[in-house]
Amino acid sequence: MEPTEPLSIGEIAQRIQLVRGQRVVLDADLAAFYGETTKRFNQQVRRNLARFPADFMFQLDENELAALRLQFATLKTGRGQHSKYLPLVFTEHGAIMAATLLNSSRATAISVHVVRAFVELRAMLASNQALAQKVNTLERKVSTHERNIAELADSMAQLLHTPAEPAKRPIGFINPDDSSASKTTG
């Protein structure tokens, strides 16, 4: 089952899933990367369980498997298309440990690509977190600016709606009511 062309980091990265908050690779995908059948790969793993603590490898439960199947767009249908066993999943460290079990040059070469794929995903996650932090900073600034603009608009509205000062009374002996009468008589 030896693939003829080497896998790219992008192809490997597409097979990395998020399960239980960890980035993992399914046993079938890892076996295909290393050029082994899933059955033989899992036999090797089960013979060496001491090398795979819980943070290196774990078995999916039925709910997690169902959730993963919903994510696969090209899932084969029909009898005998799915494994009758719940799959194993391997973290980055578990994938490296699996390569040491197989003891082949292909497994060693592919393990380097698998590690690089995990590192690339970690870098993408870090850049996304930095971007999210910048967006949060900008949102806070915009919020502050909106408050300042609202305060400025309220102040301007108050200035526009202030009542005009009443007309001042003329100084002297002139009665403002009589001024119109005196102009007509005089």
UniProtKB/TrEMBL annotation:
Keywords of the record: Coiled coil, DNA-binding
Coiled-coil annotated spans: 121-155
Keyword Coiled coil: yes
Bias-annotated ranges (Polar residues): 177-186
Pfam families: ORF6N
Molecular function as annotated in GO: DNA binding
UniProt key word DNA-binding: yes
Stretches for region Disordered: 167-186
Residues of the KilA-N DNA-binding domain: 15-100
Name under which the protein is recorded: DNA-binding protein
